[in-house]
Amino acid sequence: MSAAVRRICYLSGTRADFGLMQSTLQSIAAHPALALKVIATGSHLSERFGMTVREIEQAGLAVAARIPVDTDTDTGAAMALNIARVLEGCVAALARSRPDLMLLLGDRGEMLAGALAALHLGIPIAHVHGGERSGTVDDPVRHAISKLAQFHFVATAESRDRLVRMGERADHVFVCGAPGLDGLRELAARDRADLCAGVGLDPLQPLTLLVYHPVVQEAATAGQDAAALMKACLRVGLQVLALAPNADAGSHAVRAALESFASLQPVRFATHLSRAEFVAWMAACDVMVGNSSSGIIEAATFGTPVCNIGTRQNLRQRSGNVVDVASVGAGLDAALRLILKGGRVSCRNVYGDGRAGTRIVEHLVTLDLAPSTLSKTNAY
C-alpha cells in the first residue's frame, strides 16, 4: 500500500450508526487515496441484537477489532462500565493499527470512548453529526465528543454555527449534510404490498413503524411507557411493526413490553431489520411512531408523518413532517388520528440533499493532519 494512502478508522457500536454511515464508509473504502478499517463493539457482537457485525462484513468492510461489552445488563451503571471497556479495547486496537484519523458519529458512549482513546494516542478525530441538540444524556455526550475532536462534519448550518459558538475553529467545521440520507430513496426498493406480505399484515389497512428507545433518565418507566404507546396505536386502528430498542438502560423492559403484544393479530415484532428493510418500511408506513432520530432526520425524505414521543429528540431541528407529543399520556390518540387524517407530508428535509458521503470523502482526502492539529485550544 502506498504511503500516501490515508488510513481511516471508524468505530461502530450499533446497527443504527452503521446503517447511517454504511454508504459513506463504502465510499471511503473505495477511494484510492483512503483505506478504511472498522472497530465493532456494543450490540454488534450480541446474538440478542442480531449479531449485526455480520452486516459490516457483508458490506465488504474490514473489521480490524471486536470489543465485547455487556449488553445483558440494562442499567446506567452498565452503560458507564461499557464506556470503560470500549476505551480499553480501543486503545489496544488503535495502538496496533495506528490510523491517520479516527472517524466517529453522533452521541453514544462508545463514540466517547473512541474519542478519548484517539486523543491520548495522538490520532486526529473527525466527528459527524456534532452541534445538534437533544433532551437526554445524548446531548452532553455529543458535545463532549465534539470538544475532543479536531474536525467536524455537521449536518446543517445551524449545527455549524453552534459548534463555532462553542469555540471550535470555523475552518474545521464543514456542513456536509446527514450521511443517513445518502441513497435513501434507492434503498427503499420494496413496496408496501411486498413488505406486508412478508410479515402477514394488510397493506390496505393503516400501518405504523414503531421505534421506541429507552431514555436513560427515564429508564424506570420505559417499559410501561412502551406498553402505553403500543395500546394507543392499537386504539386508533393501526397495524404495528415494532422494532427492538437499542441496548441502553431500560431496554429489557421496553423489549418485553413490545414482545407482549406480538401475539395480537395486527402486531409484529422484529429484533432487527436490515438497513434496506428498515428504510423501505419507513417509506411505506402511514406514520412512524416513537422517539428515534431516524424519524427526525430521515423520514422527511419520504414525506412520512412522524409522531415523536417524549424528550429523547428535544430541540433537534425538524422538517415539516414531525408532530411532537410530550408523553404517552393524554393527547397521543388525538395526535395519531390527526396525523392519519392528514396523510403524507410534502416538505424539504432540513438535513441535506443526500450527498453527505461525497463531501465527507473529499474532506478526508484533503484535511491537514499535521501534528499541530492536535494542539487544540478553544476560541472562546
Would you tell me the overall average pLDDT?
94
Low-confidence residue ranges: none
Helix content, binned percent: 25-40%
Shape: globular
What oligomeric arrangement do these chains adopt? single chain
Biggest β-sheet description: 7 strands, parallel
Q: Please state roughly what percent of the residues sit in beta strands, choosing from under 5%, 5-15%, 15-25%, 25-35%, 35-45% or over 45%.
A: 15-25%
The rounded distance between the terminal residues' Cα atoms is 42 Å
H-E string: EHEHEHEHEHEHEHHEHEHEHEHEEHH
Radius of gyration: 20 Å
Strand order of the largest sheet: 3-2-1-4-5-6-7
* Number of DSSP-assigned strands: 13
Number of helices: 14
Alpha-beta classification: alpha/beta
Description:
With 380 residues, this protein is an alpha/beta fold. It contains 14 helices and 13 strands. It is 39% helix and 16% strand. The chain has a 7-stranded parallel β-sheet, with helices on both faces. A 6-stranded parallel β-sheet has the order 10-9-8-11-12-13, with helices on one face. Helix 4 (109-120) links the parallel strand 4 (101-105) and strand 5 (125-128). Helix 9 (222-235) packs parallel to helix 10 (251-259). It is globular, with a radius of gyration of 20 Å. The mean pLDDT is 94.
Question: Tags for this entry?
Answer:
seven-stranded parallel beta sheet; 14 helices; 13 strands; 39% helix; 16% strand; globular
